[in-house]
Amino acid sequence: MTLNTLKARLAQPGLICAPGIFDGISARIADAMGFDALYMTGYGTVASHLGLPDAGLATYSDMVNRVATFADICRTPIIADGDTGYGGLLNVDHAVRGYEKAGAAAIQIEDQEFPKKCGHTPGRRVIPMEDMVRKIKVAVEARESSDFLIIARTDARTTLGLDEALRRGEAFARAGADIIFVESPESEEEMARICATIDKPLIANLVEGGRTPILPRATLEELGYRIAIFPGSGFLAAGTALQAIYRTILEEGSTAGHEESLYPFDAFSRLMGFERVWDFDKRNAA
Question: Which residues form a coiled coil (predicted)?
């Protein structure tokens, strides 16, 4: 994957749909399906890697290592959640350099106070707009290539209202962010207003059960969104499937008769790259 792939795709028409990836299995499955981009979800990655809530508990080291793992697995460009930049301006500089070196195509930085919280949960507070503008300027200066995209997210809608969120989105665009992410609008009308106000590529964050309505692709395109991310879809689906098969094992003591609900073992082994191992063993048999 080259960095300019996502930037070049943004220059073309049509909505970019990016499913959430959160571990090596989800990354391999999504990467094989032909998406234009993938989204490394902070919520899912923290839950999968640490078994903890996405509440500022994961460190920069935790997350940049996940970025590197996913980028090594995937050919598809990865948009990576960078939380608040993990601290002050120097931390933002370090995070941007680290994410770019690790192989992400874009880093998302938000204006929440530390410790941050998932964008569709209550209790979020934001830093002063001027502080976030400085973070964005530092992020733009820190990257080595302009093909590595800076995504500026504001969580102001929930606590300070849509007008303040729009004011911040416009300021972040002027500061040099490549993509603007106004988190958790609460109606299609609010989404339309966001798209009509901010003259930059925009992200729609579609979280099943969250604050923002789940709209069809055609509607999102008509409104003016360029990227739709689906951060929770994968781990919510996986949670349902795991719970179902684990319940079967608990109640029946067997998976007999449930094979059709499971990914075929041979196909899964090939997905994980075992063919290379098998070929290597053949070539190097004693």
Answer: none
What's residue 121's pLDDT? 64
Give the span between the Cα atoms of 43 and 22, in whole angstroms. Answer: 8
Q: Which domains, ranges and CATH numbers included, belong to the chain?
A: 4-237 (3.20.20.60), 239-283 (no CATH)
Q: What gap in Å lies between CA 259 and CA 248, rounded to an integer?
A: 12
pLDDT at residue 124, as a whole number: 80
CA 200 to CA 179: how far, in whole Å? Answer: 6
**Pairing status of strand 179-182 against strand 149-154:** parallel
Using one digit for the tens of pLDDT, what is the confidence trace for 33-51?
999 999 999 999 999 999 9
Backbone angles phi, psi at 179, to 5 degrees: -135, 140
In DSSP notation, 76-114 reads S-EEEE-TT-SSSHHHHHHHHHHHHHHT-SEEEEE-BPS
